[in-house]
Design goal:
The complex is a heterodimer of chains A (about 400) and B (about 150). Chain A has helices spanning about 40-50, 55-65, 65-70, 70-80, 85, 260-265, 280; strands at about 1-15, 15-20, 25-30, 35-40, 100, 110, 120-125, 130-135, 135-140, 155, 165, 170-175, 180-185, 200-205, 210, 215-220, 225-230, 230-235, 245-250, 255, 285-290, 295-300, 300-310, 315-320, 340-345, 345-350, 355-360, 365-370, 375, 390, 395-405. With about 400 residues, chain A is mainly beta. In chain A, strand 30 and strand 31 form a beta hairpin. In chain A, helix 1 runs antiparallel to helix 2 (about 55-65). The longest helix of chain A is centred in the N-terminal third of the chain and has 12 residues, at about 55-65. Chain B is built from 3 helices and 6 strands. In chain B, strand 1 and strand 2 (about 25) form a beta hairpin. In chain B, helix 2 runs antiparallel to helix 3. The longest helix of chain B is centred in the middle third of the chain and has 13 residues, at about 55-70. The interface of A and B includes residues 221 and 392 of A.
């Protein structure tokens, strides 16, 4: 089987620190910590002005409504003989994909206090905006019905924030040596900024954190993240229809998943020197990232995916190497060089020092061949689950992909 | 666009002395004593793994002088350096930054070593963000490198 990844990329010029696609808006932060916004419809118009109708349609499915691409209806339509070829005709065999330069997005500044420090991460949930910087955690609001309305900016934590996640009505903030902090969101639309919300420390050390469905993985310097089982309740009111209706109320202390992970990877067996693959033994095993309970693991020179299963009963946490995601060894990917990973579609984007690659069950594919400062994906978004936003030297890019497989003799 | 280093080149002012049991001493800029330690120039003969310069000893000393003369210091008085964009790595494991810890006594000899946050977890701390921004403003590093340093990924 030969697999091709067709890439459509939109490039917007400028020096940006981070960005989000949220409720039909592109939100960007400048290096100086100011928010800018433009409606996605403006990007659609710009694309339609510049490219053929065929590519504009592809952009709809690969960038502006990737939920359509992932829908069973679309997949069924593409199963018709010739449908996929017609859909992809706009690529016209372009090997490096299609790049559309968008110079007329007219991003509008949101008149609010600038966020101080260098941005390291951000999260948006139910119109609540959280920004982690070298100076701390900041909270503001975004109103999609009045996007350029300035809102107060409140500092919630005065510690370097290396990563944050915002979902299920809570914010989880990783502050390295200062620990992992948990805070509940306040959805009041009135004087929310006057509330003295006090984040609660729930782990001693945290380099990063990521939701594993409703539970949390706390990444430290250990090879395996700590698994933090959550407690929660159904949300009463406030949350709009775009958001999950579950409120996490707290986490258990982190559980060690090293044992079940090693077992899943076959690393707990007693082996003789002759049995060993020297590369596997000399190089570290470490979880690089996750897509909910799908964990991407570096094992020797290979990448593996391990699925966690969590039960509330006695069996606790179980791990099993994925059958659908075969072991991947690609000379282009040295697992020790991987800087970060992000879930996208059925795979991961892997950020390397000089490029970003898409890895999925079909293999490893170049997504962009240059340094990027930051990649953000929107795996739990309603409209943009298949888009990657990339912060580059002089641009921000939106990148969408479409994977085709076919027999080699075609 | 790539960063263009528009800072003035630092004159080379390191004068080597006579090799001793620990390394090669230099009289560096402003008469500062600097010692290029053997265990940061070669991994042989050291029990614990140290970071190793990929620069020659004179270039190592010059890197120190460049930091000192440009006042690339943190609030404790430690000096920092970063390899200019597209120049060779400082360390044998791809390290692009260097750290020169302030000696205990003012008259003590300085030394330094290459550091990279990605490969070594024992680095003392981060370079100050305003220093990283200064490197960027001087065109020594790109925005991407600035981000990588601040994200502890360089």
């Amino acid at each position: 089987m030969s697999t091709k990844v067709h890439i459509l990329r939109l490039d917007l010029p400028g020096h940006w620190a981070d960005g989000w696609l949220y409720k039909e808006h592109l939100i960007l932060w400048s290096d100086a910590g100011q928010m800018f916004v433009c409606p996605v419809s403006r990007l659609v118009e710009s694309v339609e002005k510049q490219v053929d109708h065929e590519i504009a349609v592809i952009a709809d499915f690969l960038l502006f409504r990737t939920d359509w691409k992932q829908s069973p209806q679309f997949k069924r339509l593409m199963s018709l003989n010739g449908a996929e070829e017609s859909f992809l005709a706009g690529f016209n065999g372009a090997l490096d994909g299609i790049v559309v330069q968008v110079d007329d997005a007219k991003l509008e500044p949101i008149p609010a206090d600038h966020i101080s420090g260098f941005m390291l991460d951000s999260g948006i949930y139910n119109n609540c905006v959280y920004v982690g910087t070298t100076d701390g955690l900041f909270e503001t609001r975004f109103d999609p019905n009045d996007p350029v309305a300035g809102k107060p900016v409140v500092q919630r934590l005065q510690k370097r924030v290396s990563a944050l996640t915002a979902r299920y009505s809570v914010v989880n903030t990783s502050a390295d040596d200062d620990g992992l902090w948990f805070s509940r969101m306040n959805f009041d639309e009135g004087a929310w900024f006057r509330e003295a919300a006090a984040p609660k420390r729930v782990a001693d050390y945290s380099r990063g954190n990521s939701f594993a469905e409703r539970d949390l993985l706390n990444y430290t310097d250990d090879p395996f993240p700590g698994f933090m089982r959550s407690a929660g309740e159904k949300e009463q009111g406030h949350v709009d229809r775009d958001s999950d209706r579950w409120r996490i109320t707290g986490y258990d202390v982190p559980s060690d998943i090293g044992g079940v992970m090693k077992s899943a990877l076959g690393l707990d067996r007693v082996t003789t020197l002759l049995d060993r693959n020297p590369d596997d033994d000399l190089r570290p095993v470490a979880v690089l990232g996750n897509s909910d309970k799908k964990l991407l693991v570096a094992s020797g020179e290979s990448l593996r995916v391990v699925n966690l299963t969590v039960s509330r009963g006695r069996r606790g946490i179980q791990a099993k190497a994925s059958d659908s995601f075969p072991r991947l060894s690609d000379p282009a990917i040295d697992p020790t060089d991987i800087l970060s990973t992000r879930p996208v579609d059925d795979g991961f984007l892997v950020v390397l020092p000089d490029e970003v690659r898409l890895i999925n069950s079909h293999g490893s594919f170049l997504a962009i061949s240059e340094q990027v400062a930051h990649v953000r994906t929107f795996a739990h978004s309603r409209r943009y689950p298949g888009v990657a936003l990339m912060i580059r030297e002089d641009h921000v890019s939106l990148l969408g992909t479409y994977v085709t497989t076919g027999s080699d003799d075609q | 666009m790539t960063a263009a280093d528009d800072s003035e080149p630092t004159p080379r002012r390191c004068r080597p002395g006579k090799k001793n049991k620990d390394g090669l001493p230099f009289v560096a800029c402003e008469g500062t004593p600097y010692l290029s330690l053997d265990y940061h120039q070669s991994s042989s003969g050291t029990r614990h793994q140290k970071s190793i310069w990929s620069l020659t000893r004179p270039d190592e000393c010059h890197t120190f002088c460049e930091s000192r003369l440009n006042a690339w210091a943190d609030s404790d008085g430690n000096y920092w350096s970063v390899a200019a964009e597209k120049s060779e790595d400082f360390g044998t494991r791809g390290q692009r930054m260097a750290f020169f810890p302030v000696p205990t006594n003012e008259t003590d000899t300085w030394h330094g070593y290459p550091i990279g946050r990605k490969n070594e977890q024992s680095d003392p701390h981060d370079p100050p963000t305003d220093l990283v921004q200064l490197w960027r403003d001087q065109g020594r590093i790109s925005r991407m490198t600035r981000a990588r340093i601040i994200q502890r990924q360089l």
